[in-house]
Structures are given as C-alpha cells and as structure tokens.
TrEMBL record:
Cofactor list: Fe cation
Organism: Triticum turgidum subsp. durum (Durum wheat)
Family: Belongs to the iron/ascorbate-dependent oxidoreductase family.
InterPro entries on file: DIOX_N (IPR026992), IPNS-like_FE2OG_OXY (IPR044861), IPNS-like_sf (IPR027443), Oxoglu/Fe-dep_dioxygenase_dom (IPR005123), Plant_2OG-oxidoreductases (IPR050295)
Biased composition (Basic and acidic residues): 13-27
Statement: the UniProt record of this protein carries the keyword Coiled coil: no
GO MF annotation list: metal ion binding; oxidoreductase activity
Protein's name according to its UniProt entry: Fe2OG dioxygenase domain-containing protein
Length: 296
C-alpha cells in the first residue's frame, strides 16, 4: 500500500487495469494511499488483502539472519588484503543484497533528503499541483507514463499489517538498485533459502541489490533476488530508490567471458527496452518476468 504520488504503478498492481490496444498499454488509475487511509477510517479495502501464504504475517520469516554490510572505505583502502573485496563477492553470489557504510555521502545530506521526501508525501496531490501553478487534477493520470530513475515510496500505518503487503515480492529489472530506507523503521524483506529476512536499517547505510539485467550479463553467476515491503500497524515508512539500468537500445546477453569451459548460455540476447516494456506490463510475481530472457 505504498503511496502512488510519485511511485511506479507496479506498486499498486492489484488495482491496476491494463488494456492492450494496438500494442499500446494503458495503465488504470492508481489511488493515493494517504487519501485512501484518511477516507477508510481504519478499514482496509478488500483489494489489498492477501490470501494464504502470500500474507506477510506467515511463519516463513527468518528474523535472526542479517544481510551483509560492506565497508566502502575499506574497499577504497584496498580491502584489508582483499578481505572486504572477498566479502563483497560473497554478498553478490550468495545474497544479491548488501548494505554499504562509509560510502562518502554526508549523513546530514541523507537526513535532509529523507526529511524533504517525507514533507512532500504529507501534501495532498492537488496541493502539490497548486504549488506549481497547475490545475488541481493535473497529476491524476500523469505518473503512469513517466520513466523514472529515482522513486520515493511512502507507506502509511496499516490497520491490518498481518494481511496487507506494502509491495509484492519481485526482483528489480534494473542492473543495480540503491535504496535509502527509513532509519528507524524496518519494512524491507529479502527472500533467502525460502524464508523472508528483514533488512534492519543501519544508520546512514545504503542498501544495494542486484537486478535482472546483471543476472543476464553474468549468465546467472550473480542473481537478482526477490524482495518485498511489509506494512506496520503503528508507524509510517519512507524509502528512496535509485535504479541503474542500461539504455533501452543496449543489447543484453551473457558476457562471453562467462560462457566458457562448457558453461551453458542461460539467457538469450535482447534489447533492454524490450525487457523494460515486458517488465512494466507484467504483474509482480517473484522472478517470473525474467522468464522472458531464459533459454529453456
């Protein structure tokens, strides 16, 4: 139930209606969840409720595991005779997720970015339009057509966090994703060995995860990883995401160096724009969208 103020419509897939007409995909209207929260007075609309094993309150959550933390300062200094570099390699191969500390970005800047983003989400959509001198309904159908490199997500408190997900399980279509998550609120979970591992925030750390494009380029050596966002009954949560992906006209496929010595080629070649279109027009269903690129 993330805010749709500047988010991808994929985050509200349960209320999307897709129409394919002559190759053009039209995305249905996405509600603003802050307004929805105020209007529903504690009740959760039925379309957001999850069934069975898809519910976030299940038993397959591994609360004691921790994703790796990489010290970028150590990497710049040589990694302690390669120890930190080896730690990064294992994080990419075994997790596909890690947090980065000592990355060189000033902590006050990150705090200010979080404060301004939160202030933005407190504004109703039509107040946002008016501050730009636009008609109140200007943004109603605009965001679904935008191509975004940076996305801000806002998850208001949810009265039934045991039944509602903030964001369905998925892998990212990008090559690398960098996330600044709310310093005091855990909500991100990573799928590992069949269990969901919460990503507990480290102050001023950035969360990095590998996307589908990098899995294709490495012929599956580095894998994109399923992750999801859960809701909280008491607190809201903010995240700021930056996606790094190839240009649309770039042809992707396994690097020749990684298809050698009898290693099978696991992915076909395709334009990244083709995959991006497939990704944004598919539902969030784990890593199902990557079937587009696999060689059976």
């Amino acid at each position: 139930m993330a805010s749709a103020a500047v988010c991808s419509p994929k985050q509200q897939q349960r209320q999307e209606e897709e129409e394919k007409d002559g190759g053009v995909v039209k995305i249905g209207r996405v509600d603003d969840v802050q307004e929805l929260q105020r209007a529903c007075a504690g009740d959760v609309p039925e379309r957001y409720l999850r069934d069975g094993d898809d519910r976030p309150g299940g038993a397959n959550v591994c609360a004691h595991a921790e994703i790796p933390v990489i010290d970028a300062g150590e990497l710049r200094r040589g990694g302690g005779d390669g120890d930190e570099l080896e730690k990064l390699r294992r994080a990419c191969e075994e997790w596909g997720f890690f947090q980065v500390v000592n990355h060189g970005i000033d902590g006050e800047l990150l705090d200010e970015m979080e404060r301004l983003s939160r202030e933005f989400f407190m504004l109703p959509l039509e107040h946002i339009a008016e501050t730009l001198g636009l008609a109140p309904g200007t943004f109603a159908g605009m965001f679904g057509d935008a191509v975004q490199a940076v996305r801000m997500n806002f998850y208001p408190p949810c009265p039934r966090p045991d039944l509602v997900l903030g964001l369905s399980a998925h892998s990212d279509g990008s090559a690398v994703t960098v996330l600044q998550q709310d310093a005091g609120r855990a909500g991100l979970q990573v799928l590992r060995d069949g269990a969901w591992v919460p990503v507990h925030p480290v102050p001023h750390a950035l969360v990095v995860n590998l996307g589908d494009s990098l899995e294709v380029l490495t012929n599956g050596r580095y894998k994109s990883v399923e992750h999801r966002a859960v809701t909280n009954g008491e607190q809201d949560r903010l995240s700021i995401v930056t996606f790094y992906a190839p240009a649309y006209d770039v042809e992707l496929g396994p690097l020749p160096e990684l298809v050698a010595d009898g290693e099978p080629c696991r992915y076909r070649r395709f334009k990244h724009g083709e995959y991006s279109r497939h990704y944004v027009t598919s539902k969030l269903e784990g890593k199902k969208t990557l079937d587009f690129a696999k060689i059976n």
